[in-house]
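(Deposited chain)
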Amino acid sequence: MSYVDHADIPVVLKKANPYTGLPGQVVLSWFSNELVYSAATINVRMNVVMYFDSTKLINRFYTYYDRSGIIDATNTNVLEN
């Protein structure tokens, strides 16, 4: 597994995010995760949002990635069962 094409954008929210109800500092992060499974190599694009509290510690961590490449390479969808 390797971690490439990384980008972070720090953001200060002036109002609470309607989805989380949290104000404050967040970091939006994008990167590719190259996974090797048997003979297949899969590039999974990852999206992450980290919320920080007033002491600058991570308060919440949200992540999203498209599992379709993993499903194709493994020929299995573990979340269906």
User: Anything to note?
Assistant: Helices lie at 68-74. Residues 2-70 form one domain.
